[in-house]
Write a structure and sequence with these properties.
- The complex is a heterodimer of chains A (114) and B (114).
- Chain A is mostly beta strands and 114 residues long.
- Chain A contains no helices and 11 strands.
- In chain A, the strands form 2 sheets. In chain A, strands 2, 4, 5, 6, 9, 10 and 11 form a 7-stranded mixed sheet that branches. Chain A has a 4-stranded antiparallel sheet with strand order 1-3-8-7, with no helix packed on it.
- In chain B, the strands form 2 sheets. In chain B, strands 2, 4, 5, 9, 10 and 11 form a 6-stranded mixed sheet that branches.
- The chains are: A mainly beta (114), B mainly beta (114).
- Chains A and B meet through β5, β9 and β10 of A and β5 of B.
């Protein structure tokens, strides 16, 4: 079946550091990928829709300059949390859609900012 | 606008007992509905989906759900709970087929007691 790989699975870094998270579709091409944020014991909040070859579409309230998204190829989207601070600590999950199939999710990235 | 409400943030059942997780939706257009499961520190795995075909949908791991338009519900059931079913369950809705943005419910934690 369709596989979405997310890397790294866990990141711990100092405040002010920029962190890049990768989301790859391993056995299919994805023109669209989605980035979610999940706080403890809460649901997934859609942050942005990543579109291959064009700008990402951000949800209301999500800072574009804080969460940079690049979708340079049909199998890779990256989320960069710039100048991360403790309040950015969260679980970030990406998803991608094989042709006309439901979204398949990566295993998530646990980001901890000290 | 679309929304999903999961009744009960926490459900506890005994091993072997019936599992019933409730989901009600609101949608101005025919919805596509999904149930996902999330194990700790992992992404989401699709259990089953409703896409306007059969109203009773069978998924993986013995789960099934019934779409009831009159009740705007899509409750998830399993006849006999296993310890391995303990996880977080999310109901989700989308409007434009399988490929639209997913709107998630708040999630229900399923606890299975021995």
């Amino acid at each position: 079946g369709a596989v979405v790989s997310q890397h790294p699975s866990r990141v711990i870094c100092k405040s002010g550091t920029s962190v890049k998270i990768e989301c790859r579709s391993l056995d299919f091409q994805a023109t669209t990928m989605f980035w979610y944020r999940q706080f403890p014991k809460q649901s997934l909040m859609l942050m942005a829709t990543s579109n291959e070859g064009s700008k990402a579409t951000y949800e209301q309230g999500v800072e574009k300059d804080k969460f940079l998204i690049n979708h340079a190829s049909l199998t890779l989207s990256t989320l960069t949390v710039t100048s991360a601070h403790p309040e950015d600590s969260s679980f970030y999950i990406c998803s991608a859609r094989p042709n006309n199939q439901p979204q398949h999710f990566g295993d998530g990235t646990r980001l901890s900012i000290l | 606008a679309q929304s999903v409400t999961q009744l009960g943030s926490h459900v506890s059942v005994s091993e072997g007992a019936l599992v019933l997780l409730r989901c009600n939706y609101s949608s101005s257009v025919p919805p596509y509905l999904f149930w996902y499961v999330q194990y700790p520190n992992q992404g989401l795995q699709l259990l089953l989906k409703y896409t306007s075909a059969a109203t009773l949908v069978k998924g993986i791991n013995g789960f099934e759900a019934e779409f009831k338009k009159s009740e705007t519900s899509f409750h998830l059931t399993k006849p006999s709970a296993h310890m391995s079913d303990a996880a977080e369950y999310f109901c989700a809705v989308t409007r434009s087929g399988n490929t639209g943005k997913l709107i998630f419910g708040q999630g229900t934690t399923l606890q299975v007691k021995p």
